[in-house]
Fold:
Amino acid sequence: MSDFVGDGMGTTHAMMRHRLIWVVTRMHIQVDRYPVWGDVVEIDSWVCGSGKNGMRRDFLVRDYATGEILSCATSTWAMMNKDTRKLSKMPDDVKAEISPFFYDKFVMKHEPSQKIKKLDDSALYIRANLVPKLQDMDMNQHVNNVKYIGWVLESIPQSLLVAHELVNMTLEYRQECCPSDVVTSMTDPSSPVAIALSVEDTEGKQKLIKQAVDTACCPSSFELQPPDTATPTMTATGDLKYTHLLRMQADGSEILRGSTTWRLKQRFLNSKNQTQH
Structure:
């Protein structure tokens, strides 16, 4: 419909003349409910201008049978010169090509705007020596932006991944990553509940959780599992928030900053409620 070049990357004829490509600079994803096996989903997506030189692409995922909104996402894109690998202003002829297809509708009324702090070597969880593979490259020969999500999850505690599911993720892309780069993934708890659950000794956990509840920083429903039980040890029903950083292992330069929010999976929540009753 747009009569673009059709390379799968949204490149226009004018962009090709200027040697320009699209790169994502920021992404925010919100999940209300995950689809299950057998569900049919419908995805709507549209673009709009973002500032003078950017573009925003929004996504909306619905249950096809009921119309229920399952997930939504918004992303911000900028133009990069293919040769210099530096961000570029949007030329007038490029703007003239894409602006007729802008649809000025926001998928989120209030997108989180809080600044994401930079982590350092004091981060609680660190996973080093992450190397991109051939299948991680896009057609512009840098790591596909989806791969960064996998790298962020590499430094998440496994017990968290078993018992909780991701409900919010914000990613700020700082620089591209190439096939020869080696990456370090860092994660640090940033909410009272997550900080409490990261403490090794049970007595210390109980004190921190009580402090968090007393100061009304988070919900008061928590459970600390004995160390030898088969169920995961991190089963707090309050939202858990973490801060993330991907950086080059060679020089420590930033690749990405991120933040995530996690909630207890429904099956663990149901089990907890049945036990209490």
The chain has a mean pLDDT of 82.
